[in-house]
Predict the structure of Tetratricopeptide repeat protein.
Amino acid sequence: MSDPSNGPEERRDRRWSQGMRGVLWVSAGALAIHLIPLFLPRNMPEQELAIARATENIDSRLTYLVPLKSNDKATAQDLRTAAELLQEGAPAQAHDLALEAERRDPTAVETQLLLASICDVERMSRCVEQSLNKAIELAPADPRADLLWADLSEKKGDLANATEALARAHKRVPGDALVGVRYGRLLSRMGQPDDALKVFATLEGRMPPARLLVEQGLVLSKSGRSREAVNLLQQAVQADPKLAEGHFQLGLAWAQLGNDDAAEEALLRADRLNVADTRPLATLCTLQVKAGRFEGARQTRTDLERRFPQRMDAIREQCRLP
């Protein structure tokens, strides 16, 4: 005779009980990990930083972080981290912490970059310049000060100063593809396509050929040289058929030339290669409306709305149907 204690219900209860114990152990372990900082000695900077990171309240952060300025165990890096956590909500206190970091490690370029960012929040333009100039003095071959200078200038809409800063950064690291691409794009925005193309020419062999062709094609498109742009972008997608951005930009260039069929083919290809990007179908929808192909535009917009329901309002705004 079988033992009723081994019935299906008891076995199910036993498995459930074992599963719950496992969940409880995992939860207890996770809780212990998060509570560890609370049991560290209170004069350890790591603990103060950990607690400050765990709260968004600026007053609470001040309570934990400001005392680090007089904590002998706090390193310059600890003080910079504390200043970063206070930069937006309490820039004056962040500034004090950054100055203490500078006192403890006067040769750190990172401190000068942080001071420049904080001074920008405080709208202290002279302080920004002084900090960036000091960063350049400390590391003449380091482009980060000029890149930050470009960021801050561009944020204010001062594209001329941003361009000059990127020119300096490019001169310091002429083979750096990220710096070169950014500089070339800004030159293109500033209406200097020939200078932009010269910058991109210096990047040959330093970035994938197809991506470089796309960048060069973009410069030509923005300067109205659409036929030349199409030629370069066709070379780009031939070199890398799976480069979604290449097909997208080719679609835009074809549209500039009025070749809607070629534009649609390129845009659909870009969409298939990167289904997370709304731009190809949104652009196609706009072109279809402009051409009076309303049924096609309606279907394109429906596809977009089905795929990106969280962006439905923006999609309808971008592609308005009569």
Observations:
- The mean pLDDT is 90.
- Residues 170 and 176 are 7 Å apart (CA to CA).
